[in-house]
Amino acid sequence: MNNKRSLKSALNHEDNIDTVLHKTAKYLSEAGIETSFLEAKILLKEATGLKSVEIMCERDIRLTSNEIKKLINLSRRRYSREPIFYILGNREFWSLNFNVDERVLTPRPDSETLIQTAGETLLDRNSNMSILDLGVGSGCLLISLLKEYKYSFGLGVDVSYSAIQVARENAHKLGVGDRSLFVVSDWASALNRKYDLIISNPPYISSEKISNLAPEISKFEPKVALDGGIDGLDCYRSILPNIRSFLKPQGTAIIELGEGQEAEIREIAYKSGMRIKGFRADIAGILRVAILCHL
Description:
The chain is an alpha/beta fold. The protein folds into two domains: 6-80, Helicase, Ruva Protein, domain 3 (Orthogonal Bundle); 91-294, Vaccinia Virus protein VP39 (Rossmann fold, 3-Layer(aba) Sandwich), CATH 3.40.50.150. It has helices spanning 6-10, 17-29, 36-48, 52-57, 65-79, 84-88, 112-121, 140-148, 161-173, 215-218, 234-246, 262-271, and strands at residues 90-93, 96-99, 130-134, 153-158, 180-184, 195-200, 247-256, 274-281, 287-294. It has a seven-stranded mixed β-sheet, sandwiched between helices. Helix 9 (161-173) links the parallel strand 4 (153-158) and strand 5 (180-184). Helix 2 (17-29) packs across helix 3 (36-48) and helix 7 (112-121) runs parallel beside helix 8 (140-148). The longest helix has 15 residues, at 65-79. The mean pLDDT is 93.
């Protein structure tokens, strides 16, 4: 199998589900997908509605014509390296299920470090604090915090109207629509109030490196949410002065950063009138989050 139509010719109605699974995994592996068996099982679940245990244990099941057709269509999309979470239409983040598509980045496990850091820094879960999310994207950060801090209110801003639509959908889906507001704005330039907590996961990849990323990222995810300029730091130069303006005197800001950017972020923060209180590492041990306050 060496092209996107070969799975259709490889499958037939006499194949049991175990054979279908292995043929689909082989097809995906030839597209360079390293986790081809796992993803084949995910797509098979999506196409049939079966559970993992049924796929793995009831191996004599035969797929219907419609199920085979659906599996082929899903697999072709993944063969093209479209992200699996776009194909499924959702991704889990902080144990919550977020809608995602090509309008937003897929939430990364690394970004859960921001939520964990907030929980360690702001201990009062009954606080009615105000939260600002700069570059809200899918809404995963803001909504996760609102689920943790049930008396708080959040504002999410993004330069992309399409992203704002996704964030708003997720807020209503996850039950925080009445405690959140989403607006189109360029790094909060249109805002005029101060917040207890400001969070942000801005674009921090240098422009020249984007084309070298995995096709799932470079071909499908919105470039505006990835591109941090020549050195990957353009957005920090824009948002840190904004954070200083919109953060209450005793407030806290928590921002994500790219690998190895901590020294530059510290310098930009100082020039913006902010102080780095500390950094937090992600699950891989990479410094991923900076905690800031006023000087």
